[in-house]
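Reopening this one. Same input as before:
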Amino acid sequence: DRRRCGGVFCSACSDNAIELPMFGIGGEHRVCDGCYSCHQDEQRLVWAVTRRCAHDSVDDAFEDSSILSLVHRIASTPPCGRLEWCTSQHGESILALAAYGHCNETLITAILQACDQLESAVALVDNRDPVALRGALHVACNEGNEGVLRTLLSHFSSPEGVLSMKRLLGGKDKYGHTPAVL
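Same output, byte for byte:
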């Protein structure tokens, strides 16, 4: 199967299979050992962010540093844009999960800073779940999460970033609501 990294693998080369919703294909597909390892890191990050956000009242510096190192490892491993692949089983992006869970701003800032270009950060913020079509801005507004919203907005303070943020703020979910309306 030709999949995630572009390689072709038979059952003798790899018996690892994962779902690849980021490519718009359903079911599990064969991937190489390297891609399988990368996928495991992505799933660990989703789990860690979800768990950390649920227990944010606990100050655990070790856990925070582990999550941050995982963010940097994923962002620095090819292909570029892998943080966009860090989604829940329902398709919520890593930033939307952080907004749902009222994560601390340090984690959200680290995720955004791990993006190598403005376009990558914009894509990550606008990465919408497949059902309600809500990205991180929609979730932050809907949840009344001012800290996450402030962090997201402050990351895009350059002139190019402001233009991108205006476009994102005008994006509508499946109900026709923009983040500002929610």
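So the earlier flakiness isn't reproducible anymore. For the record, The mean pLDDT is 82.
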